[in-house]
Design brief:
By secondary structure, this protein is α+β, with helices and mostly antiparallel strands. The protein contains five helices and five strands. It has a five-stranded antiparallel sheet. Helix 1 packs antiparallel against helix 5. The longest helix has 48 residues. It is elongated and about 90 Å long.
């Protein structure tokens, strides 16, 4: 005699549960991939903004003149401040000489002070790159560097543009909120 299992769900309900679970799994995987893509796109955008800024400034004759003269005049300081203020996702620009002394900074009281973070040495060796560093203000920053060269190819100094990780983390949070509610 065959015994019936009274606790077994009918086939219709078992299939419904399996399909529902598959949908939730597919939705979760799709959402995870989408969020990861959005985060990577945001990080790439920030890197592109920082890098395009330093490449443009690093090749500018006006920036080279700052290093040749040893100071940043008011007109150039206003221009560089406007670049920072009007560029989304960038918070700092620094121009420093070959001794890593700041000739321009968005915070004027830091002009004449040594560059902080210790990640400028590759720029002083002629390299263009992106790095992460923590200056003395303890705000971890994503930074792009470009050397400034004279006509003979000698390094006069460097330009650095950066965004704080605090800002980047806030943008990440915005992405999570927009996708996950």
């Amino acid at each position: 005699m065959k015994q019936e299992n009274k606790h077994r769900l009918p086939l219709f309900w078992r299939l419904t549960l399996i399909i529902t679970a598959a949908w939730f799994l597919l939705l979760s995987v799709t959402l995870g991939v989408t969020v990861r893509f959005a985060l990577r796109s945001m990080e790439d955008k920030i890197d592109n903004v920082l890098m395009s800024t330093v490449v443009t400034l690093g090749n500018s004759p006006n920036i080279r003149r700052i290093l040749e003269r040893g100071y940043c005049d008011e007109e150039m300081a206003d221009y560089l401040t406007d670049v920072v203020v009007n560029t989304e996702d960038m918070e700092f620009i620094t121009i420093a000489d070959s001794n890593s002394i700041r000739l321009f900074h968005i915070e004027p009281e830091l002009i004449g002070q040594p560059f902080e973070g210790g990640d400028q040495h590759r720029a002083l060796a002629g390299e263009v790159y992106i790095s992460d560093a923590t200056p003395l203000n303890n705000q971890m920053q994503r930074r792009a560097f470009h050397p400034i060269l004279d006509d003979g190819g000698n390094v006069l100094g460097f330009v650095m543009a950066s965004a704080t990780h605090e800002r980047i983390d806030a943008l990440r949070g915005d992405i999570y909120v927009s996708y996950l509610g």
